[in-house]
Amino acid sequence: MVHRLVVSYGQPDDPAAFDAYYRDTHTPLAVQMPGLVRLTTGKPQSMDPSHPAPYLVAQLDFDSEEAMGAAFASDEGKATARDVPKFASGGAVMTHYEVNEVHVSR
After folding, report:
1. Total number of domains constituting the chain
2. Is 91 inside a domain boundary?
3. What is the C-alpha separation between 75 and 15, in angstroms, rounded?
4. Is the dihedral of CA 70, 60, 46, 10 positive or negative?
5. How far are the Cα atoms of 11, 55, 86 from residue 50, in angstroms, in the given order?
6. Which molecular function term from Gene Ontology is one that the record holds (predicted)?
7. Residues 6 or more apart from 88 whose CB is under 8 A from it?
8. Model pLDDT for residues 18-43, shown as the tens digit of each residue
9. Domain limits for position 64
10. CATH number of the domain bearing residue 34
């Protein structure tokens, strides 16, 4: 099983500064968290213009919810969490869940 943390970042005041900070400072902190299996990011586009999409979405995968909790309790996890207010001027919403995979056969 994979346990996934999803971080949805709101529109930043300065998108270029956000992008540079996220790439050069925040990502190197995040990838040091123990137990992190995968980190993916993307800039979503809304299918419904009346509901704006987040500016950036990050997905962090762990082997279990317990592994995710241990990662955020670690020094590296605490440093990563403390870093978010330094660049996320548009806010950040975090959710997590157990990933259930549906296999598609064609």
Report:
1. 1
2. yes
3. 28
4. positive
5. 15, 15, 29
6. oxidoreductase activity
7. 9, 10, 12, 18
8. 999 999 999 999 999 999 999 999 99
9. 3-98
10. 3.30.70.100
Task: Give the CA distances from residue 36 to residues 9, 52, 87, 105, in Å, rounded to whole numbers and listed in that order.
Answer: 20, 29, 22, 30
State how far the Cα of 9 lies from the Cα of 103, in Å rounded to an integer: 30
Is the pLDDT at 100 greater than 90, yes or no?
yes
Residue 51 structure tokens: 């509901």
For 40-75, the pLDDT digits (tens) are 999 999 999 899 999 999 999 999 999 999 999 999
Q: Is residue 105 domain-resident?
A: no
Q: Which residues are within 8 A (CB) of 35 and not within 5 positions of it... i.e. 6 or more apart?
A: 62, 63, 67, 68, 70, 71
Number of CB atoms found within 10 A of residue 77's CB: 21
pLDDT at residue number 43: 98
Q: Rounded to the nearest 5 degrees, what angle is found at the Cα of 70, between the Cα atoms of 66 and 72? A: 120
